[in-house]
Every structure is written in C-alpha cells, then in structure tokens.
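#random but structural
TW: two for the price of one
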Amino acid sequence: MNTRKLVAALIITGLAVNIADADNSKETAPKWPAHIQVVLDTTKPLDFDRGDRLPLYLWAAMNPGPLDDKSAEELVRKLDQRGVGLISSWDPRDRQESLARSLTIAKAQKKLGLRVNINATGCLYSFFNGDERTAHIDDEGKPFWDDSFGKNNMGCPFALDFRRPFVREQVEFFVKAYKKADLDIDFIFVDWEIDGPIEFNKAQAASKRCRRCRQNIKNIDDFDEFQKVLRKLRSELQRRTYAEPVTLNFPHALVGNYGVYPHNGYRYWYDYFEYYVDGQPYQGDQHAKYRKWYHEFPETGYTFAMPVVYTWCRIFDWYDYADTDYRWFYNMLLVASNAGEHTPDEIPIISFVHWHTVGSRPSGGQAKQFSEGKYQELLWHMLLRGTDTFFLWCGRQEAVKEIQLVHQVYAEAQQYGRFLSRGTPINFNVGTQPGTVISGLKLGKRVLVRRTDFKKTEDLVEITIGDAKIKVAAALGRCQIISLQ
C-alpha cells in the first residue's frame, strides 16, 4: 500500500471510530431529564413486592417532559420497580402541551395497571388574582389588601363568588379530557396554600376593618367564630371547584390538598408564611403555641389526608430538650400521630415529609440538623401509626440525600406488607420527655413493633394492647414481630 492510500485508510478508520464513539455516547448518555435521572440513580428496585399499596411519591419524580409512548412506558416501569409513582402536572397556562404530556404518561400507567397520578396545583390559582373586586372594602368604600401574607394580594373572603367558575373550569378542562380519553384519575393533589380565605396572621384585623366582612361575620371579635366562618368558606371553595369535578367523574379517585387532614382540634406546625398573633387561641407546650384548628376535612370532599411533617426551623427553639434530635422527633411525631389517630381507616394518609431544615431561626444562628438515623426512625413510626405512604418535597440540590433517606425506609417496609395493608395502630402517645418510643401495627394475634430509645437502656418495656400485654426488647434499627400473650 502506497503512502497516500495508507493515509486515506487511517483517516477513514479514524472517522469510523469517531462515529462509533459518538453512537456509543448517545446510547450511554442519560435519556431522562436530570431531576428524573437523580431518582433513578438514587434508588434501586424493591426487594419486596409492594402489592397494591400506594407508591412512594417524590417531588423530583414529576414532569419528565415530552415522551413518546415507548419511552413513557419505560420510565413508568422503571420507577414502579423502585416503588415510585410518576406524577404529571396540569398547567392551565399551557393547556394543550401539559395535557398531551400528561395523557401520554396516563396511557402508559393504565397499560401497566398502575395508578394515574396528577399534580393539579396550577389549576387552583388564583382566587385572589389581584382584581380589585376581590379586595377588602373599608368604611369609605375604598379597596385594600391584607399584606400580612407577603406579596400575595389577600383580600375579602366574601368577594370570591365570581372567581369560582374560572377556577372550576381550569380543573374541568383536564378532567373532561381524561374522561374522553377513557383514562382514570387515581391520585390527584394540590399544593394550594397562600390563596383563598385564611384566618391567621393579621387576617382578623383586616376583616374587622372591612365593611363587607363585618356584615357577614356576626361576632367578628371572637376568633373561634371568625375561624369557623373562614374555614367553611375555604372548604367550600375547594370542594366546589376541585374535589367535586374530580370525584363526580372518577368516584374512586384519591383527592387531597397539602395540609388538610383530620385532627384533634389543634395544629402542631406553622407554614413558612404563618406567624402567631396575640389573642389567637392556642395550646401551650414549653415555648410552642399550637393553634386551635377547625375541622375542615369533612367539608372539603377530599378522599385522602395530607399532613405536613417537616423540619420547620422554628421547632428547634420551641423545646428545651438537651437531645436536639428529640426536639424534631417529638414535634413531627405529634403531627403524624394526630393525623393517624383521627383519620378514619378508609381514608388513606399520604404524608408530606422533608428532612433538611426548612427556613431560618428568628433568633439567628443555625438550628442543629435532625440526624439521618433518627429521621428514618421517625418515618418508621409514622408508618406504624397510620401513614400509608410518603410524599417527599425537596429542592433539586437536596434531592439525593432526601430521596435516599425516605426510599430506604419505604423499600424496607414493604417486607411487612400484610401489616401495612391490614394492621391497626396500637399506640399514638408521644412522650413529653426523651425516652423509649414504641409504635406498632396489630394484625390478628401478632404485632409489628418498632422501638426507638432516646436514652440508652436495655430494659424490656411492657405495653398493653387490648386485653394482652407484650414485652418489647431493645432492637436497634429493626422492627420486631411479637405474638400476643
């Protein structure tokens, strides 16, 4: 071979290698958006079949972008192998595009016999949209806003009737499309927070100043009465514009909203935009003020409960426990136990959870982070006190660790499937001092229990379950199945 032919051959061979390398790189490159790939990389397929129990929901496992039928089915299957349910979002600002993407995923979920999961948050915004007709009205007939909720234009709770058809239509557009396509809606949630009637912050003071509010609330100085009226209005808005359009078309659908769940009349947490105002009724606990709460759940038409079990930064300063882990654990278990004890058996509990500390301390400085180990213990106790599954909320920078922690517990718990599906919680007590915490599910003559010690001890702990007693030994990081005597 002469020199020219040799050079030509080398060039051709090099091009072929480069093309092959390019093809291989295309095959190995991630085909999913970064936030979806994080979920796949951070989790692994379940070792134990979850049966027909609810999947794990992750904020990151939402909205994978445009997919064709084949890739949608592949992604839905991959996530389901890990116990994770893929969620589609409805966006009324981009109806056709978000609907097309959602329907593609729903078809794959139906084909695989899985739940169709929807985030309808965008459809409920906004009742208070900045229109002056929704504002409060002072004695001179001038409109004004309640500015105690940040930049949101919070107005008069009695000025929203004309907004109802607009919001309901946003929901119905998507519901009708699913019905027409012969696709189900199995799980649908909204994160509807700073909108509509809310009685906290300085809302009562604004309503006292509002001519229309005074006309509609007979005893406006009584906070209990004020709260009752506003929560009834808030519940009706959610039922008429969101819950009913879904359940009338899909009676079996699980429908709910962030922070709405049955309870004992008190709420043990404050959202990031909320703060206490003197004069509002509360139950004291060390430095904490647990606000009195209206029983709104039955009036919303919701079919699942959604408590919020977050590491809100203010929790750290509420309690004086030297074991700072117990400050977090105590409050968060109170929230979970409150929902577990008061939610009827037929209503699933899908608890929002989060590990990284949320917000900053008013006093400055850093709150000591809840330890990974005790956070996972909390998740176990939640499952043994009525929580059916978790919904993890977190930002993308926090996703790897957040997903890892919750998925480990969820995946391991599936080995106790019969207890999770049929068991009855044995205990909702939360000790006011760090000690031994025991939770469990009773099924027939056996009890699945978890014991977590905040003080080092190997002593047996005896507990009473109905007419029987059991002794629970220390078992670090493990559940136990104990026969009833």
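TW: number two ↓
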Amino acid sequence: MQRTLLNSLIAWKNQTTRKPLLIDGARQTGKTFLLQELFGDTFAKVLRIDFLENPSFKEAFDGSLSPDELVMNIELLTNQVFNPETDLLILDEIGECERAVTSLKYFAEKAPSYYVAASGSNIGLLNSFPVGKVEQYNLRPLSFQEFIYASGEPALIKAFDSQASSPAVHSKLMDKLTDYFFTGGMPEAVVTWYHHKESSILERIEKVSKVHADLVEGYRRDFGKYAGKVDAKLIESVFNSIPSQLSLVSDESVKRFKFKNVHERKSRYNDFDTAIHWLRSCRLALANYPIEGQPKAPLAAYKKENKVKLFLFDVGLLNHMLGSSYKEIKQQNYEYKGYVAENFVQQEFTAIGIDPSYSWNDARAEIEFILATDEGDIVPVEVKSGKRTRAKSLASYIEKCSPNKTFKLTGTQGSSAMEQTHIVMPLYFAQYLPLHND
C-alpha cells in the first residue's frame, strides 16, 4: 500500500537538521503503518513506543526532558539501543502522554539531527502543543489516487497518473470510483477489498461491510473515552446526524447543517459548537462554509461559524451508515448519489490541503465549492454526479461574479484539453484541478 505522504517524510529525513515529525489523523487511517513499515524501511532500525498500548512508557518522561536522558530511559524500558545517526524513534499515540508532547520542543531545540516522529489520533484535543517546534502532517483515509495505487494494476495506475482521456480509461476509472464509493479509503477496508478480489462479490461486500461496522463502532466508543468536558452523547448525535441529514438531499447541492432535532432540548449552533469542534479536531468531520455575495480572497474572512456544511471524513463509512448497498452504488441510481459525489470531492480537496472548504449561494443558486487560486482569483467548482452537465447555478454565478475560469466535475469524460475557461473534468480527477493561472 502506497501513501503519497511518504514523499514528504523522506524529504524531511533528507534535511540536514529537522524538527520532530507529528502525524495527526483519525484513528485507523494508517499512521503507524506509514511510519513503521513504509517510512521505517528507509532507516537502519526503528525504535517505536506506543503510549496507548503500554502506558508504562510514560515513566521515561517523568524526569528531565533532555533528549539524551529521554533516549537513555527509552532504551532501558525497551531493552533496545537507539542510534540517533541512523535510527528512527517513533512516539506512537503521543496524545496519551502530555510530557512526551512537551518533549518535542526539546528535541527540536537540542537534538535537531535526531530522527523523531510522533503520531496520534487526538492531537487536536491537546491542552498544550509545541507550536513552531514540529513539522506536522495530517494523514487522511486513502485518496482515490492511493486507492488506484493499491489496485496493483500498472496500466490503470499509469492512465490515472497521466490523466489519460479515452472512453476505455473513463469506463475503467468510473468503475473504480464506484468501488471506492463503497469501500472508502480506510486502509483496512481497502486491503480487505483487494485481498479478496478472487472471492465472490458477495463475500467481498460482506467482509468490507464488517470492517466498516467495526470502525464506526470503534469511533462511537472513542467519544466516551476522549470527550473530556464535551458531552459524549452530543458528539455522537452530531456524528450520526451528518449522514442522516444528508440522506434527505436528492441529487442536488448539500444544504447547511440543521441543528434542530439533532439532540434533545438543543436546537442552536451554540449548543453544538463544542461537539462539531471535537469531531473536526479528531478529523472525523469535514467542514464547508457557504459564502454569500461576491466572494473575495481570503475566503476565511467571510465565513460564518453557525452556517456550515458537515461532511463525513470517509465516503465508504458514509455509505455504510446510510445503508447504501454495493449494487445501488454500482448502478448509480440510488437517491444519495449527488451527496456522495460531493462528499468525495470534499475528501479529495481535504487530502491536498484544502481544509476547510467553501461554497457559494444566493437566493436561487448554489455552487458546491469555490476555491482561491495562488493569485487570489476565486474559482467556482460545480459537482454533477451523473452525466447531465447543464448547470443553472453555474450560469447564475458567472452572471453575478464574472470568474476568469470555471470547473464542473461530472460523471462524463470531460471537455477537450483545448478548453481553458469553462472546464469540465471527470469526478475522479478532482485532485488535479488546475488552479494556477498560466
């Protein structure tokens, strides 16, 4: 299994001096596998301690936080030798040990040549954080590109990476995209799907669905474990309500999150802001903020916290929670497909660093996404799940906002390479949106 974040980690390793790595991400997105197996293979040795698996490792951080003394303590507790010139030290589930989090500051300042990497699934909930002393990355579920890489089909991988456009390529990639809508990008679900490709389709579906069920149940248990001062029941109500609210949408733009009837005796944004912040901090929910009027950069200056669209962090878990069957997804005739396509695009944008995202609406029109280019231009992106590409909302946006460029992501093969202004691209190439002005 390939993870594109590995390239950034190798670049970090190749620096002369470095701050400690900190990999944030929802539980079960593959942080340990990335660090220990993929990245670890580039080192002479990996020394890993896991504070969740073995809380006794916290003892190593009870006294001095001098890097040399910490390494000596870890060597004593693990009975392993660590060579700072050639080895990688992994502090897994570091959020379980606040002293270990604090120690990253001292590794940055006093041992910048050491290879120290930390990871955790509750980094966003920490009370204290070594700001400016770590190089931080977020590991999301596998993107569609990573799902294609996991297929082990060289010709398909080559076609995707080169953004090939032909009827044969389009047919194959749309077939894979609908598979991805079912499996999502959680590593265990993807591995299960491909590992059992010789099995019957019913067996594959059953095994992936079991993975999904276990993951969702695990997240719900985490609400009680890590909620802290936030009401765990409230967090669960919001989490459950994301797919159930969006299931009411039928092949049109997602509407903003409604707070009424989500939780007993609570109906305003102020009742839910802590739960939404918790879910976003733990990377389980993705946010999109609708902007009204003439959008300008920076878009963040115009957002209103109480008007937000919430997406689930993984499209496979979304379809599982909605009860959408594999057959329905493959036939593309189930009523949630517009929302699923939008959730997919949100995920793809998040994977390339667009988080949160923004949308646009006025009285009668809505654009699913608006993006700011490096030059400060605002570019509208309309999402059409099927083959119909006529877009009244986009026409309304063009009339009112006069953009230099527009995009439509659709279930079609897309427009010709010659078209430079009003570009139509297939959904599966969402990560390749050319946002730079030439």
